[in-house]
Design a protein that fits this description.
This protein is α+β, with helices and mostly antiparallel strands and 449 residues long. 33% of the residues lie in helices and 23% in strands. The strands form 4 sheets. Strands 2-1-16-15-14 form a 5-stranded antiparallel β-sheet, with helices on both faces. The chain has a 5-stranded mixed β-sheet with strand order 12-5-4-3-13, covered by helices on one side. The longest helix is centred in the N-terminal third of the chain and has 31 residues.
């Protein structure tokens, strides 16, 4: 017995010494970095199964998580809706020949899929329809997140979100340099009319900026800069309802359906007959794309839809946050702030300690690997060119915004342990690539543990 006690003490001392050595290595990397002099760095590393703290630094500081937040908003939505949930867009007819379309907040809806729906309608009702009535009650029509930056309005990664969403609410414009000294051209082949102010100049390189100035007009997009070769740019639409109705009219024509009445907006009445329906891919596939490619639009549509399901009402950001709070309510009493699904709002605040606790909660649930496998590994999505040396050992989600960088996930260490980790960096003014390299150096140090 005494020998066993002695062995236990020796092993405990050895483990403590090894942990202390690795902690010293992490401390050295952080404290010697230029980032630590001017920015805030927070790190938390825990044993994913036991919750044992392996390393922490500024772990209780509230910081903006950027897109790392998607792990946790998407997990709460995934549990609320179920991995096999599909977004349905459904068509109904009444006895007067009015066509009702109940929108399903499908983030993957396109004009072609709408044509498919309407062709099914025509197969069952080969006559002109009267009024077309859109039921958009599944989520609210607040199209921009709380705390989002107004100058991101032209950012293709941040289109507006709404029940009236199609083609991710973006159009493609083509920019071309002028020939033989003529002025550059901008072409919009979409049926959606957008007022574009062309301030382009012929130049030696392509250096383009896009801007909207809502204090002047909400319907003007300024394209400024130099252009040397043709460019195709995805541009978020400024009016999602106008864009949707334009695409709906195009889909009606594509399906060969004529209508004689008006376009209206109202809840679906009773007594109408369901005639056709289209469904998205299952939620697990859409969440997979959301996490790997950090799709903000998908994240917001999923989060609000799940919030409505939770509240048994129209989905809102507020009901989605309540769903989030409920899912993570078994974690210890943390202070945090969540206002959107994608993490882009500057109002979002999490601690590194909360993140690793939440990761551990996810890891220790039944069938947890099904969700964890939806996270990117090196060579995939936003992790495509990072940490290739440990590509089979890592599942993670990155986050990037102006002055903000983050990464969190799970790592299988060299010694065979499974750790959860979170690295948050805020208020930096360095090149993003250099900040990401610093994060990678910390993760490689964690891998050695």
């Amino acid at each position: 017995m005494n020998k066993l006690k002695t062995l236990f003490v020796v092993l405990s001392v050895f483990t403590f010494c090894v942990s202390a050595a690795y902690a010293s290595g992490m401390d050295g990397l952080i404290k010697k970095s230029n980032l630590n002099k001017t920015s805030t760095i927070a790190v938390s590393v825990k044993d994913a199964k036991s919750g044992r703290v392996v390393y922490q630094y500024n772990e209780n500081k509230l910081m903006n998580p950027a897109s790392v937040q998607k792990i946790f908003t998407m997990k709460s939505a995934y549990e609320e809706l179920g991995s096999g949930y599909t977004f349905k867009t459904t068509a109904y007819l009444d006895k007067k020949g009015n066509l009702y379309i109940k929108l399903g907040a499908d983030p993957t809806l396109t004009r072609n899929s709408l044509i498919t729906l309407l062709k099914s309608v025509k197969e069952k009702y080969n006559k002109p329809v009267n009024d077309i009535v859109l039921d958009s009650s599944i989520i609210d029509n607040r199209q921009w997140g709380t705390g989002w930056m107004w100058d991101d309005d032209t950012n293709e990664l941040l289109p507006k979100f709404s029940p009236f969403s199609i083609n991710e609410n973006k159009i493609e414009i083509t920019l071309s340099p002028g020939k033989n000294g003529s002025n550059p051209e901008i072409r919009n082949k979409s049926s959606y009319t957008m007022h574009i102010v062309n301030r382009l100049k012929n130049g030696k390189d392509n250096n383009i900026s896009l801007e909207r100035m809502p204090w002047i007009s909400s319907d003007l997009t300024y394209v400024t800069g130099d252009i040397n070769s043709p460019l195709k740019i995805k541009l978020p639409v400024d009016s999602v309802e106008r864009y949707f109705t334009g695409e709906l009219n195009a889909a009606l024509a594509g399906a060969g359906i004529k209508h004689n009445g008006a376009l209206k907006f109202a809840p679906l009445p009773s007594g109408v007959n369901k005639v056709a329906e289209i469904s998205s891919a299952p939620l697990n596939e859409i969440v997979n794309l959301t996490l790997k490619d950090s799709n903000n639009f998908y994240a917001e549509m999923i989060f609000k839809t799940a919030g409505g399901h939770f509240a048994k009402d129209t989905g809102t950001a507020e009901s989605a946050v309540k769903m989030f709070d409920n899912y993570y309510s078994d974690l210890k009493n943390y202070s945090y702030e969540i206002v959107d699904g994608c993490g882009i709002s500057r109002n979002n605040l999490l601690t590194a300690d909360w993140i690793t606790d939440a990761l551990n909660k996810i890891y220790n649930e039944k069938n947890s690997q099904n969700f964890i496998n939806l996270l990117a590994k090196p060579m995939q999505g936003t992790m495509s060119d990072r940490l290739l040396n440990i590509s089979l050992k890592l599942r993670a989600k990155t986050g990037t915004a102006s002055g903000i960088s983050s990464i969190a996930g799970y790592i299988d260490t060299k010694s065979g342990k499974k750790y959860s980790f979170a690295i948050l960096i805020q208020n930096h003014n360095m090149d993003t690539i250099d900040v990401k390299k610093f994060e990678d150096s910390l993760i490689n140090e964690i891998y050695k543990m």
